[in-house]
Write a structure and sequence with these properties.
It is built from 10 helices and 9 strands. The strands form 2 sheets. Strands 2, 3, 4, 7, 8 and 9 form a 6-stranded parallel sheet that branches. A 3-stranded parallel sheet has the order 1-6-5. It is globular. The protein is an alpha/beta fold. The two termini are 32 Å apart. It has a single domain, classed as TIM Barrel, CATH 3.20.20. Helix 7 links the parallel strand 5 and strand 6. Helix 6 packs parallel to helix 7. Bound molecules: zinc ion (ZN). Zinc ion binds next to loops. The site of zinc ion has 6 residues, from loops.
Length: 239
């Protein structure tokens, strides 16, 4: 996801010029149940041209503190980060989803091209690593009715978010990102962040959330799939 692009799409949708129909919208998941005292920390792995493309310190923090997290990997990122893919797949409390093959603007493509963009990394994960991945997040958060229908037909779950951290925006301080997230934080929230090194403050923000901010609101972190099947009776005890 690229923050500035998403703003543009949101504005377009806000003006009702290019919004998916309500029927399609119903299949797009933006949050878990409000009855669940947990949130999902999600990290997109969009391709990057410069830098390492991997926030190693962030991932090490999550592993060290056993923080459940969900990563949405793009195909292009995976082909350049074999060791990192293996590292993420090996962590039992991490969940893996996909994020397009070349990080295309899906609504600019026809149905067949969209299916190819969506399925290529899913097939790659299965063929190379033997891992299924049924969560899908569209690049830039962009989609149309065809995207929603394609994701459903391919047997995947369409995962967006309801809290946009804005972490790739270089003008935002860690404090500004945390203020934005805290204001929207509630049971069932899905927070979008990035693990591809684009977020200067992503680790700091994650440390603050996992440290005390979630606990202060009676919330814990869960993977997306756990959040979606969570209710009060299955949720872990409050910290
Ligand atoms: Zn992305």
């Amino acid at each position: 996801m690229r923050w500035t692009r998403w703003i543009g799409v949101s504005l377009i949708c806000g003006l009702a010029l290019a919004c998916p129909a309500p029927r399609a919208e119903a299949q797009v998941i933006k949050a878990g149940p409000a009855s669940c005292p947990a949130v999902a920390l999600t990290y997109d792995l969009c391709p990057v041209r410069t830098a390492s493309g991997f926030d190693r310190e962030l991932v090490e923090f999550l592993i060290e503190h056993k923080v459940p997290a969900t990563f949405f990997m793009s195909g292009r990122w995976m082909t350049k980060h074999e060791a990192e893919v293996k590292q993420l797949l090996a962590v039992p409390f991490f969940e893996i989803g996909t994020h397009g093959d070349v990080h295309a603007h899906l609504p600019m493509h026809d149905v067949e091209e969209q299916q190819q963009e969506i399925m290529a990394p899913v097939r790659f994960l299965k063929a190379k690593y033997g891992r299924p991945a049924n969560l899908f997040r569209p690049p830039y958060g962009e989609y149309n009715d065809e995207t929603v229908e394609a994701v459903k037909a391919l047997g995947l779950r369409f995962i967006l978010w309801n809290i946009e951290s804005g972490d790739p925006d270089p003008t935002l301080s860690a404090e500004a990102i945390l203020t934005r997230v805290q204001k929207r934080l509630k049971p069932g929230s899905v927070i979008v962040l990035h693990a591809n090194g684009k977020g200067k403050h992503t680790r700091e923000v994650t440390e603050a959330l996992a440290g005390t901010l979630l606990a202060d609101k009676g919330l814990t972190a869960m993977t997306v799939s756990d959040l979606l099947r969570c209710n009060q009776s299955t949720a872990p005890p409050k910290p």
